[in-house]
Write a structure and sequence with these properties.
Elements lengths: L1 H24 L11 H14 L5 H9 L3 E9 L6 E13 L3 E5 H4 L4 E5 L5 E10 L4 E6 L22 E6 L7 E14 L8 E7 L11 E4 L4 E8 L12 E5 H4 L9
Antiparallel strand pairs: 1-2, 1-4, 2-3, 3-6, 4-5, 5-6, 7-8, 7-10, 8-9, 9-12, 10-11, 11-12
């Protein structure tokens, strides 16, 4: 027993010496630099100095563009039975199932409505709700892209005169096109030429809007839809932009599509 104990002690001694020599031969590892707020700020500053960031208008457009659709009102051809294009407007997807907000005057009286999504996919759409007093209509596309993205909606109550905004749409059928400007006024009242009633509580803006922009989104710099373009003011027969446009606040437009929380 004494011999066995002695052998165990010798083995333990040799094991400890071998471990000590191994540690001595191991290279020393440099300690990691301390992470503090100064180092973080320096890293962020270096990144900003070497990275070209998009403009606020560009970033806002990128955020909303996948949700903007071309809206085409169709009518019966005077010759034959085929349907032809009567008017082009704009719409914005607000629900993933293909629910789209647009202006009622774009689709009013159309024999059929076709929408074109941002990826080029086309679909017939049905007008499922109308609200004449706010010039709003809700469309439901019959088929939608599998990766359809609804727009982010945000109340216009946070807007102030002078805030930057963009409009996105299809002026004269060209687009999608983006225009930048500011909020020119709030709680405006407007009666379009030939209109039967006043529209109230409108957002006035100076971003360019022309025929074809109707139904498109008015977008804040964080990419949220704050209104739906409904009209432009031009006292001449040209009916083109002179920098006075109007949008229905999203808190008025969204409930037409059954949305009340955003």
């Amino acid at each position: 027993m004494a011999l066995l104990a002695l052998l165990l002690l010798v083995n333990l001694y040799l094991t400890l010496r071998l471990a000590a020599r191994t540690r001595l031969r191991a290279p020393m590892q440099a300690s990691a630099p301390a992470v503090n707020q100064k180092n973080i700020d320096a890293a962020v500053l270096k990144t900003l100095e070497n990275t070209v960031l998009p403009s606020p208008a560009s970033a806002a457009y990128d955020a909303v563009a996948p949700s903007v659709v071309r809206v085409i009102a169709l009518e019966k051809s005077p010759v034959g039975r085929r349907l032809i294009e009567r008017e082009v407007g704009t719409g914005v997807v607000v629900v993933r199932d293909g629910t789209i907000l647009t202006s009622l005057h774009v689709v009013q009286g159309a024999r059929a409505v076709r929408v074109v999504f941002s990826n080029g996919m086309e679909s017939l759409a049905t007008v499922v709700h109308r609200q004449p007093q706010s010039d709003m209509a809700v469309l439901r596309a019959r088929k939608v892209p599998p990766d359809l993205v609804p727009a982010t909606l945000h109340t216009s109550a946070d807007l102030s005169v002078g805030d930057q905004v963009i409009t996105v749409g299809f002026p004269f059928g060209i687009g999608p096109s983006v225009s930048a400007g500011v909020v020119s006024g709030l709680d405006r009242v407007f009666r379009s030429p030939g209109g039967r009633q006043d529209q109230s509580n409108l957002i006035q803006f100076d971003a360019a809007a022309n025929p074809g922009n109707s139904g498109g989104p008015l977008v804040s710099m964080d990419g949220s839809v704050v209104g739906i373009v409904t009209a432009i003011l031009n006292p001449t027969a040209a009916h083109t932009s002179i920098g006075i446009g109007f949008a229905v606040p999203i808190e008025t437009a969204a409930p037409v599509a059954g949305l009340s929380h955003f």
